[in-house]
């Protein structure tokens, strides 16, 4: 196994246990695009950068993709998800 394959295994992990992750987005950071698409690019803790895109394909459901880059520009995390909006409380 080459070093690039080892790096890929460390960066990519699959959430397979059916667990739930809570995601909160600040609508001030969102850029709304045509055809129910949106994107967000923001600085996060430790000088990292988060780039996120999504497609709202039906009311309350979206496909999203998120990449986090370290302060030196190296890919740190990739996540692809089908998200459901939580009911209003």
Describe this structure in words.
With 89 residues, the chain is mainly beta. It has a domain at 31-89: Single Sheet (N-terminal domain of TfIIb). 10% of the residues lie in helices and 46% in strands. It has one helix at residues 3-11, and strands at residues 31-33, 37-44, 48-58, 61-69, 75-84. The protein has a 5-stranded antiparallel sheet, with no helix packed on it. Strand 2 and strand 3 form a beta hairpin. The radius of gyration is 15 Å and the shape is globular.
What brief labels describe this structure?
mainly beta; 89 residues; globular; 46% strand; N-terminal domain of TfIIb; 5-stranded antiparallel sheet
In short:
By secondary structure, this protein is mostly beta strands.
